[in-house]
Amino acid sequence: MQSSLEHKVSPAAAVNEEAMPAHQRGLIVGLVAVLLIAPFLVYPIFAMKVLCFALFASAFNLLLGYVGLLSFGHAAFFGMASYTSAHAAKIWGVTPELAILLGAMVAAGLGLVFGALAIRRQGIYFAMITLALAQMVYFFALQIPFTGGEDGIQAVPRGHLFGFINLANDLTLYYVVAAIFLIGFLLIYRIIHSPFGHVLKAIRENETRAISLGYSVNRYKLVVFLLSATLAGVAGATKAIVFQLASLTDVHWTMSGEVVLMTLIGGVGTIIGPFVGALIVLSIVNYLAGFGAWVTVIEGVWFVACVLLFRHGIIGVLSSWLRKPL
Amino acid sequence: MLSISTNALFGQLLLGLINGAFYAVLSLGLAVIFGLLNIINFAHGALYMMGAFVAWMLLNYLGLGYWSALIIAPLLVGLVGIVIERTMIARLYRLDHLYGLLLTFGLALIIEGLFRHRFGVSGLPYVIPKELSGGYNIGFMYLPLYRAWVIVASLVVCLATWYVIDHTKLGSYLRAATENPELVGAFGINVPRLITLTYGFGVGLAAFAGVLAAPIYSVNPVMGANLIIVVFAVVVIGGMGSILGSIVTGFGLGLVEGLTKVFYPEAASTVIFVIMAVVLLIRPLGLFGKAA
Q1: Which of A24, A78, A190, B232 makes the best surface tag, with the fewest CB within 10 Å?
Q2: How far is residue B97 from each of residues B12, B38, B104, measured CA to CA in Å?
Q3: What confidence score (pLDDT) does residue B6 get?
Q4: pLDDT tens, A185-209?
Q5: What's the helix, strand, coil split of chain A in %, to 5?
């Protein structure tokens, strides 16, 4: 099974990527500008939600877009990190940055176990295995007392960053979340454009050939799975602090489906696509919040439409128009 | 451990066997579809649920009882499957298989969302047909007739499917098309039609299981969603290489789950996933899997 998700990011993708191309530098500057002014354009809470999910989707995209591995179990990392950071902040009373760090570590541990098991199979089996393992984590979260079962962990204190920056103010918290997102985003950008990232793309394009060239493909897959899980954990842990809540929704398979959808709409294998996808999906969900089951139907329709009509996503299409990788 | 009465033990084992019957029928359908179409049908759980709802609707809107539902529901849902295959899945055969998974995931969301919108999530009752109500005391346990029927009916359907695929001319076309569709097409066999009918058949199997399940569990829009994830684990454990393998794995894992419910109930919902992890460590291709 060599075929990975079909990638057509335009021929420009093949040019030297070592130095950051001008349009990508522009893209990142533009992103920073958007991050700076966003809280004055939309509700800061909504902006923070978008950023958490954008980081989550970017982490997922690192796996699907650049190695061709479809994980249907990313909710496990997001959710368990969310529970851990909520528990640490509320019960142990640690500062928010430590709570997020602890959450990320739990996600990393889970990612190591999931990754080691799932990379033993490829393609469709990989997706089924990650989904099944995540479902196991869901049942675990449902039964174990520390998650608070159906109630979740509520009223998590936002606390003081580093012990002295009060995060009770939405705007202060927003800039902290924006910084976390930006660090994660740039880290992913750096990974993709590193020699390590090039090997990942080689695995995506032709795994057998990468093996025959002497790369220990499984070790690469495991490392990138670990990175993706950890970053998904950072997103989940941050989300728990922002919304002061960790609940079963965060570990449920629908959450895994949502992050797949965000990446698909934005553009699999594009840098900025997951961000755009998260923004679109969350706007739709926000807008349709009162419509109950219709939200599920509309998400399903988006899935079908994406697969049948625009497989490269919004940014993917834009990217081939401009003949530049975005 | 000794304090557990034999009645409770066999009761749980019976429940386990029933779950196993559903695992077997559903994973069999997944395996048949995967063999020919190379896609994993994420909508399988939703179509199983649709089968149960069609039975309920036939009874409540048209007054058609269980026995006619057992035939009509799989046909109707199979027809829905054929439409889905012709209009959507058929466009994906030249693409990566992951797209098939994503498409059918979307379809599952649509189907479930629509039923949830119409019927809510509380579940609707479906009465056991009177021919199969009641039960017998068979010495060591009380055997409800309907549950025995579910196991027998699933087993018969599974074995009939195996017989058709392994021992008939139609089955030999199917197996040949799985190996090499171009060559089979060159012999004048209409492979696309074979693919469409296979998908319809696999989906019909799911609907059949749904009708069987209707009187046991209440008819509920979310009944398929959780089941399908367990069935995925069953498929990973068994490997999709062999029809009989799928049947044995399905029933076997149902029994294991039933036993876990007796001896360590906390782990009952996760035991199959744990087994999957162990199988991946020891035999990544699955118990009956063959290298691709």
Answers
A1: A190
A2: 38, 7, 11
A3: 76
A4: 999 999 999 999 999 999 999 999 9
A5: 75, 0, 25
Smallest CA-to-CA distance from B272 within A229, A75, A216, A135 is with: A135
Judged by CB atoms closer than 8 Å, whether chains meet at A307 and B99 is answered as yes
Helix axes A44-67, A253-266, angle to 10 degrees: 80
Answer left, alpha or beta for residue B120, where phi above 0 means left and psi between -120 and 50 means alpha: left
B114 contacts in chain A (CB < 8 Å):
293, 297
Fold of the CATH domain B13-282: ABC transporter involved in vitamin B12 uptake, BtuC (1.10.3470)
Domain boundaries, chain B: 13-282
Chain A CB contacts of B225 under 8 Å are: 253
Indicate the DSSP class of residue A165.
Answer: E
For residue A322, being part of any structural domain is answered with no
pLDDT at B41 over 60: yes
With CA atoms as reference, the chain A residue closest to B265 would be A143
Nearest to A322 by CA among A54, A13, A49: A13
Q: Chain B 220-239, CB below 8 Å of chain A: which residues?
A: 225-226, 229-230, 232-233, 235-236
Q: CB of A258 within 8 Å of any CB in chain B? A: no
- In angstroms, the first-to-last Cα distance of chain A is 28
Checking if the pLDDT of A9 tops 50, the result is no
What is the pLDDT averaged over residues B45-74?
95
Confidence of residue A5 (pLDDT cuts 50, 70, 90): low
What are the beta bridge partners of residue B136? B143
Chain B from 35 to 54: CB within 8 A of any A CB: 39-40
The reported pTM is 0.91
State the pLDDT at residue A15. Answer: 45
**Whether residue A24 has pLDDT greater than 70:** yes
Confirm whether A189 is domain-assigned: yes
The total domain count for chain A is 1
Asked if A60 is an interface residue toward chain B (Cβ–Cβ < 8 A), one would say: no
Percent of chain A with pLDDT over 90: 68
CB pairs under 8 A between A and B: 133
Question: What pLDDT is recorded for position B292?
Answer: 56
* CA dist A79 → A231, A259, B35, B75 (Å): 12, 13, 35, 40
Chain A residue with minimal CA distance to B115? A293
- Please judge whether A296 and B112 are an interchain contact, meaning their C-beta atoms are less than 8 angstroms apart: yes
B266 has a chain A CB within 8 A of its CB: yes
Expressed as residue numbers, the domain containing A49 is: 35-253
Neighboring chain A residues of B266 at a CB cutoff of 8 Å: 143
The answer to which of A11-20, B20-29, B245-254 has the lowest mean pLDDT is: A11-20
Chain A contact for B291 (CB, 8 A cutoff): no
Q: Is the pLDDT of residue B250 over 90?
A: yes
pLDDT digits (tens, 9 = 90+) for B70-129: 999 999 999 999 999 999 999 998 888 889 999 999 999 999 999 999 998 888 999 888
Is A248 a member of any domain? Answer: yes
Inside any domain, residue A199:
yes
Report, as an integer, the average pLDDT of A155-178: 88
